[in-house]
Amino acid sequence: MTTKSELSRTExxxxxxxSVSADSLSPDELRAAFRNHAAGVALVTADPGDGPVAMTATxxxxxxxxxxxxxxxxxxxxxxxSAIERAESVVVHLLGANQLHLAKLGAxxxxxxxxxxxxxxxxxxxxxxxxxxxxxxxxxITNLYAAGGSSLVVxxxxxxxxxxxxxxxxxxxxxxxxxxxNRTWHRLGEHSALA
Length: 195
Prior knowledge:
The protein is mostly beta strands. The protein has helices spanning 27-34, 81-86, 100-107, 172-175; strands at residues 10-13, 39-40, 42-46, 53-57, 61-64, 69-75, 89-94, 121-122, 128-129, 135-147, 150-161, 178-181, 184-187.
C-alpha cells in the first residue's frame, strides 16, 4: 500500500545540463523524428488559487496501476505551465474527435480559455473541468522534474469519469479518440483498426 509520505511532492531536475552530450540531436531533428508518431490528445486544467488554466497536451501516458500514476510534460513556453507547477491537483481530459474545439482552445495562445462559462464547471474538489470530455482523470501532483525546456509532471490519480469498460460508449467507434499526427488532428474509429 502506498503511504501519504511516498506520494509527497518533490521537485528535482530530471537531466542536468552537464549530462547532455555534444552529439545530441538538434531540436529540429527531434521534432522531425516524432512528427510521424501519433499521440492521443488531452486537455489539462488546474487552478492554483489565482484562476483556472488549461493547456492541450499530447504527452499524457499511464506509468503505473499500483499506485495509479500518470505523467505529462508541460512546455515552459505555455502560459499555463507555471500555474500547473504551483497547483496541488490537475484534471486531465482524454479527448475524442467531438472535442476538437477543446483541443484547439487549449492550444491557442493569448485567449481566455474560460470565457465561455457554458463549456466548463468545477469539480466538488475545486478543479476546473470540461464535462464534454468522454473521460477525465483528476489527480494530485506528486513530482515535478525539470526536463530541458519542459516540466515532467507526475500525477497520482484520485478520481475519474469514463464510460463503463464493457459498454458500447467505451468503443473506439462511439468515442472516436482524437490523435495528433504530423501537425494534423485525426479521428480514430473502426475504419482505422488493422486487426
